[in-house]
Amino acid sequence: MSAALDVRGLRFAYGDGREALRGVDLTVGEGEFVGVVGRNGSGKSTLARILAGLERPGAADSAEVCEHDLADDVQRRAARRSVGILFQDPESQVVGATVEEDVAFGLENLALAAERIAERVEEMLRRFDLVELRGREPHLLSGGQKQRTALAGVLAVPRRVMVLDEPTAMLDADGRRDVLAATRRLRSDGLTVIAVTQEMEELPGADRIVALDDGVVAYDGSARELFDDDETVERLGLGVPIAAEVALELRRRGATLSSLPLTVDELAAELSSRDDESDGGSSPDPGPDATARDRPSSSPNDGFEGTASTGLASGLSLGCRGLCFSYDEAGGREVVRDVGFEVQPGTATALLGPSGAGKSTLLLLLRGLLRPDSGGVTIGGVADDDEAFREAQRQVGLVFQRPETQLFAATAGDDAAFGPRQLGWSPDEVEAAVDEALSAVGLPAAEFADRHPYSLSGGEQRRLALAGVLAMRPGVLLLDEPFVSLDPAGRRDLMDILRRLKRSGVTLVLATHDVDPAWELCEERLVLDAGALVSSGRWTGAGWEALPSARLPEPELVALWRALGRPPDAALRSAASAARILSGGEERP
User: Fold this and answer.
1) Which of 38, 32, 28 is nearest to 8 (CA)?
2) pLDDT in the model for residue 442
3) b vs e for 509-539, b when ≥16 Cβ sit within 10 Å of the residue's Cβ?
């Protein structure tokens, strides 16, 4: 097999002297599909940009892509004709006034004949199911449709290599399916695919997995061998697909498996074939916090347990009635339509829905950053027409979808102190609140308070943004897509933090299209679709039916239970709890 790309001793440093790549060796053959994983800040995106010819290698023994030397400026420009790249955020890549114009953009810049452009655009529109959307303005598309449009535009110019830099990170289930299906088509077309991802469930189909750690290749091999190596997975801060996690837990309990399953279907087939399979009776529902008992915490701050130790406010109820809202730019179309619910104090509630369902807008309305067209909000029993409501609003904290964009101060300590200072607290009160908040998110003040926010890793920046909200001691915490773009270790840390906040009494509302962490953490769910609340309550009965009707998948553990022919079990809050039930309820030695 000839090599589509071959780099040896590849190094790269940014202008501030920070070395992102420190001697990467990587060879990828023609037609291979290679998954690239690693912690936030391990060098994955930098490698992707270099392979796509967007950055010049700082130094390398050799760096060739499609027989072009990336260290040579002329050859690197030529390499771009053979290598396409799809970024995480389609907004940064879609430039045309319509879908059709966007797909034609690259071809027009090559000054091809009009007939050739029209022919190629038509081919791409058909390949990526965009024919009916050809005249649509890109800003009116869903996330998945935008990514397919961007991918069609990149591949309109014939390529040999496609680099995908976390293209599904910001997409809901429908959008993710669209992009993954398009990726499978790339393979069938014979393209070489380099896919950077934090989603372990997307990796079983890869020919190889390459894991980066601190700018070097720390693993290069099969997905099955990687996920079967606990030590390597932990050392590199990775996760494993949920099916593999359940299988590994079963092994620890003495089960014998023919091989490590990587998908729910593989695990269900393996379990169904076992002669000694238990009857799998349901165990009593231990509630969502059973996850914290089943799986040891990886958080650096295990002492965060209660209100008395943290100084956080007590949880408050949060509700709304007949809430309606429309943006002017939406032509008067209601983005939130007659929504009403009540969240009890100290509970965790998942606000679920596909992209465009109105989740983010609803959070802004609940926090008071948008004024509803009609209806109202109640906080801690105080209605919005009460004189005390403004004070009640101060008890509601909001962490945006990209919380790192909330950082602006010169030091982490000053950033976390901004809110308490605006509330007029004394210097001693501010200092105590900042110390408590930084400690709560695993960024102790002694180590992090004097650091510049942009010197922190992506996961640390997200925790700092959360600390800035917690420092104001909210009784209600609203989080908008809190798990987007976090690596597996960062997700585990955030889950541990949210569990501790919940146990301390803070009321949590998580707006997300990621059902697995929502199922793991939250007792209640609100399902929003096209601005309307289509289902609410606990995860039982009709609650499951509301997910597919809102184009949302079931949690992976629930899908496993269905594949085994069993009804959803309320105790399935973690891989450990699933393994315990499957092995007959025995406690692990």
Assistant:
1) 28
2) 84
3) bbbbbbbbbbbbbbbbbbbbbebbbebbeeb
Is 463 contained in some domain? Answer: yes
Domain boundary among 215, 235, 255: 235
In a shared domain, residues 339 and 449: no
Q: Are 320 and 384 in contact (CB under 8 A)?
A: no
Q: In the structure encoding, which two tokens stand for residue 568, read together?
A: 């959803």
Band of pLDDT at residue 305, cut at 50, 70 and 90: very low
> How large a percentage of the chain has pLDDT more than 70?
91
For residues 191 and 159, membership in a common domain is answered with yes
The mean pLDDT of 233-248, rounded to a whole number, is 93
Alpha-carbon distance of 173 to 6, in angstroms, equals: 34
Using CA atoms of 308, 309, 310, 313 in order, give the dihedral in degrees to the nearest 10. Answer: 0
Residue 488 lies in a domain: yes
SS (HEC) of 491-539: HHHHHHHHHHHHHHCCEEEEEECCHHHHHHHCCEEEEEECCEEEEEEEC
Task: Kindly report the CATH number assigned to the domain that includes residue 343.
Answer: 3.40.50.300
pLDDT per position as a tens digit, 69-118? 999 999 999 998 899 998 887 778 888 999 999 999 999 998 899 999 99
Instruction: Please indicate, yes or no, whether residues 8 and 106 belong to a single structural domain of this protein.
Output: yes
**Predicted model pTM:** 0.81
Say if residue 289's pLDDT is above 60: no
CA distance 135 to 94: 14
The CA distance from 426 to 227, in Å, is 51
Residue type for position 546: A
Backbone CA torsion sign across 412, 441, 506, 307: negative
d(CA 336, CA 116): 45
Helix (H, G, I), strand (E, B) or coil at 18: coil
Helix axes 575-582, 556-563, angle to 10 degrees: 20
Of 455, 473, 491, the residue at which a domain comes to its end is: 473
487 class by beta-carbon count within 10 Å (0-12 exposed, 13-18 middle, 19+ buried):
buried
Residue matched to tokens 């939250």: 522
Half-sphere exposure of 536 (CA within 13 A, CB side): 12
Specify whether 413 is located in the same domain as 522: no
The Cα–Cα gap between 194 and 160 comes to 11
pLDDT per residue as tens digits for the range 430-489? 999 999 999 988 889 999 999 999 888 777 888 899 999 999 999 999 999 888 878 888
CA–CA gap between residue 401 and residue 432 (Å, rounded): 27
How many domains does the chain divide into? 4
Place 215 in a pLDDT band, splitting at 50, 70 and 90. very high
Q: What is the DSSP secondary-structure string of 362-418? A: HHHHHHTSS--SEEEEEETTEETTSTTHHHHHTTEEEE-SSGGGG--SSSHHHHHHH
Q: Are residues 484 and 449 in the same domain?
A: no
The answer to whether 196 touches 45, Cβ cutoff 8 Å, is yes
459 and 412 co-located in one domain: yes
Residues 123 and 214 in one domain: yes
Sheet holding 33-37, edge to edge: 83-86, 161-165, 192-196, 33-37, 208-213, 216-221
Instruction: Select from 153, 196, 142, 146 the least CA-distant residue to 26.
Output: 196
- Give the full edge-to-edge strand order of the sheet including 19-29: 19-29, 3-13, 62-65, 68-69
Domain with 437 in it: 407-473
